[in-house]
Amino acid sequence: MIALLSGTVVALGATWAVIDVNGVGLKAFCGPNTTAELRHGQQATLATSLVVREDSLTLYGFGTSEERDFFELLMTASGVGPKLAQAALAVLTPDELRTAIVTENLVALTKVPGVGRKGAQRIVIELKDKVNALTPSTSGTAGLAPMPTQQEEWRDQVSQGLQGLGWSAKDADAACGRVEHLAADDPAISIAELMRAALRTLAK
Q1: Sequence-ordered alpha helix ranges (H) in the chain
Q2: Model pTM score
Q3: How far apart are CA 97 and CA 94, in angstroms?
Q4: How far apart are CA 161 and CA 22, in angstroms?
Q5: Which homologous superfamily is 4-62 in?
Q6: Where are the domains of the chain?
Q7: 29, 156, 171, 147: which is closest to 87 by C-alpha?
Q8: Which keywords does UniProt give here (predicted)?
Q9: Which of 63, 71, 102, 128 is the most buried (most CB within 10 A)?
Q10: Residue of 82, 63, 62 lying closest to 74 (CA atoms)
Q11: In whole angstroms, what is the distance from residue 38 CA to residue 96 CA?
C-alpha cells in the first residue's frame, strides 16, 4: 500500500498530479481542492490511497491524511466509488461530513453531486457507527500550505476542477461567476475555498 508521496510536482492537471519521488514519477488523481494548492516545480507531500481493481491500480492523493481516511471510509458504503468519494470531499470538509453523517443531515449530504436522498440515507445507515472511529487531523495538511488566489488564475483553475468532477463548461463558468465576488472581496482567499463555494452553488 502506498500511503504517502513526497517529492517534486513535475506535471499537474485539474484532477491529477505527477510527483517525482527519487526519479520515479507517480501519478495521483486528486480532488480539485488539492490540485489547487499544488504548484509545478515545487515540493509537495500527499497522503495517498491505492485503489486496486481487476484491471487497474489507481493512486488517489489528498492534502491531509484525514481526507484520505474519509475517502477510504466512504468507499465502504454501497454504491460509493472513488469519483463519488472525491466529489464528497470536494464539497464538504471531513468535519462537515462527520457531522452530517452523525446527525443524519441528508440535506448536507445531497449537496454532493451524484448523491440523492436514498444514497444519503444509505451512507448514514452504513457509516454512522464507523465515522467516529476516524481520528480528526491535528497536524493540518500533509505538505500543502493554503495558496492565496491569483486574480488572473483562479477562474481557470476552479472551472477546470469543476469540469473534472463532471460539470459542463457552461455550468462551471456560471458557478465561477457566482463566487467571483468572494475573490474580489478577499484577495487572500484560497482557490480551495472558492472551489467549495462554487460546488455549493451547483448543488443547490
Answers
A1: 32-35, 65-74, 82-91, 94-102, 106-109, 117-127, 154-164, 169-185, 191-203
A2: 0.74
A3: 5
A4: 28
A5: Nucleic acid-binding proteins (2.40.50.140)
A6: 4-62, 66-133, 154-203
A7: 29
A8: Cytoplasm, DNA damage, DNA recombination, DNA repair, DNA-binding
A9: 63
A10: 82
A11: 23
Give the CA angle between residues 9, 13, 17 to the nearest 5°. 35
34: number of Cβ within 10 Å? 31
All 3 cell numbers of residue 95? 468535519
Q: Comparing C-alpha atoms, which of 60, 114, 115 is closest to residue 82?
A: 60
The structural architecture, per CATH, of the domain 66-133 is Orthogonal Bundle (1.10)
Q: How do the pLDDT tens digits run along the chain, 204 residues long?
A: 788 999 999 998 878 999 999 999 999 999 888 888 888 899 999 999 999 988 889 999 999 999 999 999 999 999 999 989 998 998 888 999 999 999 999 999 998 888 999 999 999 999 999 988 776 654 444 555 555 445 557 888 888 888 877 788 898 889 899 988 888 888 878 777 888 888 888 866
